[in-house]
Specification:
Among the domains are: about 90 residues; about 60 residues, no CATH class. Helix 19 packs across helix 20. It is elongated, with a radius of gyration of 25 Å. It contains 20 helices and no strands. By secondary structure, it is mainly α.
Length: about 350
C-alpha cells in the first residue's frame, strides 16, 4: 500500500465501534489500523479521523486488558511520533490507562512500547494534568518497579531511559509526586543507580533531574540530607569528564540543600563548606566553558540582577564580590560578544 486510504480506515473504525465487545473484531481491526497508519501513511490521514481511531484503540485496550496481542497491536499504532505529538486525543486518560494496563503484562515488547508511549504522553501534558497524574501512587510504583528490574540486570536500554524520563516529568513542580517517589523508596534506588550507572551521562542526567525536582520542594529537602548522596553528587560536580547537563542538575541539588531556605544543614559542617566552595568554582567554570545556553538561562531567570545587587552591596564579602564580578564579565562576553570585541579594540588602540 503506497497511498493513504482514509476511506478504508473509516470503515475499520466503524466496525470497531459497532462490535466493541467482540475480541476477534477488535484484534483484527487493530491490526488493520496499524497497517493503514504505518510509517508515512499516517501523515496522509485526517487528524480528526486519527483522533477517533486512537480513542477507539484505547477503548479496546480497556475492554480487553489481559489480551497481550491486542495490547501489542494497539501500542504498535500508538508508537508514532505523529500520533503522539499532533493527533488530538485525551493524552491524560491515555497515559493513565496504559500505566494501569502495564501491570497486567510482563512481556518485554509490551513493556517497552507502553513505557515509551507514556513517557512521550507525559511530556505533552499541562502542569495541572501532570499534578493529577503524579498524584496516582500506583504510577510511581509501576515506573520505579520497571527501573528496578532494569537496574538489577545492569542494562541501559530504551525502556530504562523512557521510564526515567517519565518519572522526571511526573515530579516536575509536583510535590505530591515527589512525596510518592520518596514513599516508594525512590531515593534509595536512585542512590544505587547513581553509583552503578556512573559512566552513563544520559542516565545520570535523568536521575539528577528528578532529585533536583525533590530538592525544589523545601519540606522534602531533609530527605536528601544523606552524606553518601551529597558526597557522590559533589564528585559529579567536580569531575572534569562529566557533561555539563549533569553538572547543572548536580549543582542545582546542592544549591538547594545549602540554601538558607528550607531545613537547617544537618550533615558535617566541613562538608557544608566543601559544597559551597565547589558550587562557587562550578559557577565560574560553567559560565566560562559552555555555550551561551546557560548564560541566557541565568539572565532570563533573573540571575544577572541578583549578581549585580551582590556586586554593588556594601556588605558583600570581598571574595563573593570578586566572584560575582567575574561571572558578570563572562556573561557579558557570551551574551554581547560584539560589545566586548569593540571594547577590546578600543583598549588596544588606547
Amino acid at each position: 500500500m503506497e497511498e493513504p486510504q482514509p476511506h478504508i480506515l473509516k470503515l475499520v473504525l466503524a466496525g470497531m465501534r459497532h462490535h466493541t465487545d467482540s475480541l476477534h473484531v477488535q484484534l483484527v481491526a487493530s491490526a488493520c489500523v496499524f497497517n493503514l497508519t504505518v510509517q508515512e501513511l499516517v501523515l496522509g490521514m485526517p487528524l480528526r479521523l486519527l483522533g477517533d481511531v486512537v480513542q477507539q484503540l484505547l477503548t479496546a485496550m480497556k475492554n480487553f486488558p489481559n489480551h497481550e496481542q491486542l495490547q501489542k497491536n494497539c501500542l504498535l499504532t500508538l508508537c508514532s511520533d505523529h500520533i503522539l505529538q499532533v493527533v488530538p486525543f485525551d493524552r491524560y486518560e491515555a497515559a493513565k490507562l496504559i500505566m494501569m494496563l502495564l501491570g497486567n503484562h510482563e512481556d518485554q515488547t509490551v513493556q517497552r512500547m507502553a513505557v515509551a508511549v507514556v513517557s512521550i504522553l507525559v511530556s505533552k501534558l499541562s502542569t495541572e494534568e501532570i499534578s493529577e497524574l503524579g498524584a496516582e501512587a500506583f504510577i510511581m510504583k509501576q515506573l520505579l518497579s520497571i527501573v528496578q528490574q532494569k537496574a538489577s540486570l545492569g542494562v541501559v536500554d530504551s525502556t530504562l531511559k523512557f521510564a526515567l524520563s517519565a518519572l522526571w516529568n511526573l515530579t516536575d513542580e509536583t510535590p505530591t509526586a515527589c512525596r510518592h517517589f520518596i514513599q516508594c523508596q525512590g531515593i534509595e534506588l536512585y542512590m544505587e543507580l547513581l553509583e552503578s550507572y556512573y559512566s552513563e551521562s544520559s542516565v545520570q542526567q535523568k536521575l539528577l533531574g528528578l532529585l533536583n525536582n525533590v530538592a525544589e520542594v523545601e519540606e522534602l529537602r531533609m530527605e536528601l540530607m544523606s552524606e553518601d548522596l551529597v558526597e557522590h553528587i559533589v564528585s559529579l560536580l567536580i569531575n572534569p569528564v562529566v557533561e555539563v547537563d549533569v553538572i547543572y542538575f548536580a549543582g542545582g541539588i546542592l544549591a538547594h540543600l545549602v540554601s538558607v531556605r528550607g531545613p537547617v544543614w544537618s550533615l558535617d559542617a566541613e562538608l557544608h563548606s566543601t559544597v559551597q566552595e565547589k558550587l562557587v568554582s562550578v559557577c565560574v567554570c560553567v559560565s566560562e566553558c559552555v555555550s551561551p545556553q546557560y548564560c541566557n538561562m541565568l539572565q532570563s531567570e533573573g540571575g544577572t540582577d541578583i549578581l549585580r545587587v551582590l556586586s554593588s552591596h556594601p556588605d558583600t564579602h570581598s571574595d563573593v564580590k570578586c566572584l560575582t564580578e567575574n561571572i558578570l564579565k563572562i556573561l557579558e562576553r557570551n551574551l554581547h560578544p560584539a560589545n566586548c570585541d569593540a571594547l577590546s579594540v578600543l583598549n588596544k588602540a588606547g
